[in-house]
Design goal:
By secondary structure, the protein is mostly helical. The protein has helices spanning 20-33, 39-53, 57-71, 81-90, 96-108, and strands spanning 5-7, 12-15. Helix 1 (20-33) packs antiparallel against helix 2, helix 3 packs across helix 4 (81-90) and helix 4 (81-90) crosses helix 5. The radius of gyration is 18 Å and the shape is elongated.
């Protein structure tokens, strides 16, 4: 996920778009039509999609925050003020409030 819709200086909400259900449906269809030699790979793919779909929105936002920190080379304490600054450097449209809320989610959901 390269960005999260809805974050800007006027709006502090996060809208996540998840399409794991669409991918899972396509894999189920492919699995139902697959020859026996393709089934193990498709079954493994299905298991991966199902495990990814089970991740909560909060965990997804925390993962996104960590990716944004990595993008700007931040390796410090994620609960620090420097982490909020790094997040806002990575995503300049984030309000301070949104950055702090996202930081809290990242702290609460370590990798």
């Amino acid at each position: 996920m390269s960005g999260i819709a809805g974050l800007n200086k006027k709006h502090n909400f996060v809208l996540l778009v998840r399409d794991a259900d669409v991918v899972a449906a396509a894999l189920r269809q492919a699995l139902s039509e697959a020859p026996s030699e393709e089934r193990p790979g498709l079954e493994r793919a299905m298991a991966l999609v199902e495990s990814t779909a089970a991740v909560t929105e909060t965990e997804l936002r925390a993962r996104w925050v960590r990716s944004r920190w990595a993008a700007v080379g931040f390796t410090g304490d994620i609960s620090s003020v420097a982490a909020v600054r790094a997040l806002r450097k990575a995503e300049p449209k984030l309000s301070l409030l949104a950055a702090v809320e996202l930081q809290k989610e990242a702290v609460a959901h370590p990798e």
